[in-house]
Structure prediction request, 1200 residues.
Amino acid sequence: MIQERLTRLRDKMEAADVDCCLIPTSDDHDSEYVSGFFTVRRFFSGFTGSAGTLVVTGKEAALFTDGRYFIQARKQLAGTGIKLMEMGEPDVPTLKEYLEEQIKEGQNLGFDGKVVQAGEAAEYEEILQKKQGKVIWDFEPAEGIWQDRPSLPHAPVFRLEECYSGESLADKLKRVRQEMEKEKADVHIITSLDDIAWLFNLRGSDIDHCPVFLAYAVIRMDEVLLFADKREFGEVVFADEVKGYLEENGVTLLPYQDFYRYVASMDGIRALVCKGRMNYRTDRLLEGRLEVVDRINPTTVMKAVKNQTEMENLRKAHLKDGVAVTRFMYWLKTNIGKLPMTEITAGRYLEQLRKEQEHFIEPSFETICAYGANGAIVHYSAKEENCAVIEPKGFLMVDSGGHYLEGSTDITRTFVMGEITKEMKEHFTLVLQAMLHLRSTRFLYGCKGLNLDIRAREVFWERGLDYKHGTGHGVGYLLNVHEGPNSFRWKQIPGGVESAVLEEGMVTTDEPGIYIEGSHGIRTENELLCRKGEKNGYGQFMYFEDLTWVPIDLDGVDVSLLSEKERTQLNDYHKIVFEKLNPYFTNEELEWLKEATREV
Amino acid sequence: MIQERLTRLRDKMEAADVDCCLIPTSDDHDSEYVSGFFTVRRFFSGFTGSAGTLVVTGKEAALFTDGRYFIQARKQLAGTGIKLMEMGEPDVPTLKEYLEEQIKEGQNLGFDGKVVQAGEAAEYEEILQKKQGKVIWDFEPAEGIWQDRPSLPHAPVFRLEECYSGESLADKLKRVRQEMEKEKADVHIITSLDDIAWLFNLRGSDIDHCPVFLAYAVIRMDEVLLFADKREFGEVVFADEVKGYLEENGVTLLPYQDFYRYVASMDGIRALVCKGRMNYRTDRLLEGRLEVVDRINPTTVMKAVKNQTEMENLRKAHLKDGVAVTRFMYWLKTNIGKLPMTEITAGRYLEQLRKEQEHFIEPSFETICAYGANGAIVHYSAKEENCAVIEPKGFLMVDSGGHYLEGSTDITRTFVMGEITKEMKEHFTLVLQAMLHLRSTRFLYGCKGLNLDIRAREVFWERGLDYKHGTGHGVGYLLNVHEGPNSFRWKQIPGGVESAVLEEGMVTTDEPGIYIEGSHGIRTENELLCRKGEKNGYGQFMYFEDLTWVPIDLDGVDVSLLSEKERTQLNDYHKIVFEKLNPYFTNEELEWLKEATREV
Prediction:
């Protein structure tokens, strides 16, 4: 099936004079996860991971993806003839290097300019210039080939009240305009959906697990345009109440599809845009007519720094989430071997428990519920037809999260379901140590995740081990669960964003893991809120406040491997877990919680 | 005196239409340390530190320097009216910000383009463009004001045999030309002295403690020009043997002062240069006539990675250096309270001991021998007239090194001279822990010093403490004791170079410290050689080999504060120190060495 699709694509390429076709994983808004309409890379490759770029030439096809997906991609690409390019591994070319190698003198590169970001496209233009070929940026691979393609989403949009957002649209606009003034910009164009949702204090559900809505925004000093209306789909995307709110704030609501026409009509002004997150089609339409200031969107930096209201709400969201996940843990640990459980039914039960919590909206990403060897597949997704049955032995790793009005959560716990080997226990303890080390780091203001990542990784590296993913990522507030610009990682992925200086109010996950192919996978993840600590002659010290409150399965911990300090940290953490959660538990559950958070 | 000089400078500025004058610490070759002729910043400010930039306007004068020099600069600037700008501190503007603030609309900035690097000057041009003023880059502040200015140095140049350099000039040229080919460059211009000395396998002594010689080099595919002859000074800089060697290798030796004339005559070709280390005058002469490829000099990267011969030699150099410094430690510890000692006489005695070692050439930098509170002045330099008398109490910190034919060394030990307080002992132990942690780090290939710095700093940050300098710097091979591109630091100094990926063969110091103003200073420094370790599915692991072998004063260590692991590391290190050094010690010295390296 994949081979047949590729054959049809190659015919289409030939007809359009495209020698090399690039299919990234993106929508018109640089979203990390994309709605069905935009899953073109998946359509042509069969690879279902959330990150990857497919390159197709007349002779070859290659899929570039990162360490989280190596095992999964190997499985899914088997038999398709598509080569897997394991990004970041020795001797594997980067995407750019591969393109330079594949594209011959005078050949052309084609892609859909709406799903390639402007910053990235500039690099392709450079390569094609060297090759004396051209970039064909209006080549849409799926058009005419993908018959049953899903339609564009058009879900209702709702307003996030100020008791949740902590800052009004008017105040946010004021801050954005201050940034525009600094850059002497007349207009600011925003095309990234999370930036738009944050700025307008609106949320939607156009993308699974991402409470955003398809839109473009144009901010001027005296005017705000929101291209988001989808009346022509016959759906009420904006209820009267929301329309009224926008009107009150001087926002003009326009049809979604009018954006490109509008952009093509702009003239002679200075525009602030983020080329890294703006698509190339928009860039081409602006080119030559507008003076462009290219920098990170002011909203990207602003929304990463949670305000007092958001921080207070996040504490509430995480408490609710902690109750749900801990209840799930109780259910798992007390029913294993008694009730039938599979990865799918367990995951569903966890979602059920989250739904019981007030203001729960939806899971913040697709739950990873991975039993035994499946845990070694970093972004494993259980399928009904072949999911594993959970038995009373080994590990069950569950990485999940929820969107609440009080914010988004992301937590991983690995549960001991029965007997485990000595090595498995050592690995579990190692992951715990790594998580504790990073979490307890105090540091001077000015540090980036790049500086701190080794705090988690050192116990692995010391033993010749590693995990092939970043240690942590930023988390949005009722927004994308992966959010920049803060992160914990040691290595720059070529073309990736620099990890930002950690500011008070930033939320980042702390999630080291270990993955032994064919055997087991362990990950333990807490979310950390960056806070200001002591300020003295050396500078402003910073520390992390825990947001996540769920027991760490003591059945996996070899206490003899912990230092005195680590043991104290674990006990202190569990003590607070018990204090926070015990009001929500009674009887056997409460007894169990006491035991699960006991001092070791 | 300083005020008078500044008055004369301001008169000169007015005459030349210069509103703001910039005086950096550099020579025409971007050397870190400069020979007397180039100490213009010192002449006008009185500040003797090795790093700093003086900015003089009609009304104000300000000196920018970094954390190593805050205490020293505060003392030396007192009464001069010059403002101290403590770089990197909160609320202190960067040099660029300060210039933007000081230079008014339509005003001009003046400096000597020979002592400002091209990359840096580009930033000044940008500011002046905004201000609609101009950069006057042929303004030489000292000319006509500095009467008794020292002359340009012109010391003899000698050849470093291949048994020391490990690679012939011919082979090095071949590698440089390969890099030129990659960049499609017709010519490569090198103006930095350490790059030139390394490439030609020549050494000199034109700058105190830096075995380099004033020169410029021009490499073409079929020609090599070395502008270094100084016959007009009446000195034999190049002996016949060296001239013969250069001739054999196809190198044309030309007068030093002919370089700028030559550059002004180049035309229509593509030149590889490193603007970050090439002066602005050269840049201006090339501008518009040559196509310039700006990147780090190939030789900078090559010389940082020591070859097998250099590594083997370095082990020998450090053993000799270890014998000298350990003998010094014995002398100090056994004679304190019996023999009179000052910072100056102790430093001289150490130099004497180094001189007894075979192939010793000179100290690799000005010895820092700092007693008591002077130890808190990071780059303290004892002066004959007011140096401290060493008493049988407190700490003596000695940071010193030697140039040998087998390489350069840099070591710091802090010695306990008698009674110390509990806090002092805690601090000493903390510094030791920091040094041990970084030294024992294993890491995946691809890490930079930026990733690893926290390994040393974490024990300080945990306690709300810090040291205001990088944790370590690269070290040249019989070259500059501070050498890029490798380093250990967590923060980028604006305009500074990025710390490079650590490669096998790179030598970096590991030198955390603590500085309590008015009380004490402690620093412990070993040099680390980066090595390849295990390679497995996770990647290429790297580790550090110790180069430095001198006991760490156990009188300063509170063993109860060490973890089991730290104690083992310390004992293991001392065991090897004893094994390596004991053949060179006899009788009481040997007994003492046994005790000084005992297991704790």
About this structure: Chain B touches chain A at residues 90, 441-444, 446-447, 450-455, 458, 461-462, 464-466, 468, 490-491, 533-534, 536, 538-541, 563 (CB under 8 Å). DSSP finds 18 helices and 28 strands in chain B. Chain B has a mean pLDDT of 94. The longest strand of chain B covers residues 526-536.
